[in-house]
Amino acid sequence: MDLSIDAEESSDTRIRRLISEHPVIIFSRSSCCMCHVMKKLFSSLGVHPTIIELNDHEMAVLPSHHVTCYPPAPSLFIGGTCVGGLESLVALHLRGDLVPKLVGVGALSLLV
């Protein structure tokens, strides 16, 4: 897992790279209760997403019009695609679409 920072790499490029390199990535704030619930849901499924903890200042400078989804935290990407926040994740799970999506990107394996 390469979370390295290249001084030559712009923030926009770095965020796009992280999203494309990790099957499940959450842009989170440690003080956010919705972020905590999202992490717990993944933990209960046995999924270990890449979590990027950002403070309020860092959230404000994210290139939101290009990369992140609404709401800004938690901002979830699965397979390089923006899923959204906690509400979108729960809806995906309740429809029965979350586990197949996680299996599809290699973040979860089902033992038969």
From TrEMBL:
Residues 24-83 form the Glutaredoxin domain. GO terms for cellular component: cytoplasm. It comes from the Eukaryota. InterPro entries: GlrX-like_pln_2, Glutaredoxin, Glutaredoxin_subgr, Thioredoxin-like_sf. It is found in: Cytoplasm. Its main location: cytoplasm. Keywords: Cytoplasm, Redox-active center. Belongs to the glutaredoxin family. CC-type subfamily. This is Glutaredoxin domain-containing protein. It comes from Cephalotus follicularis (Albany pitcher plant).
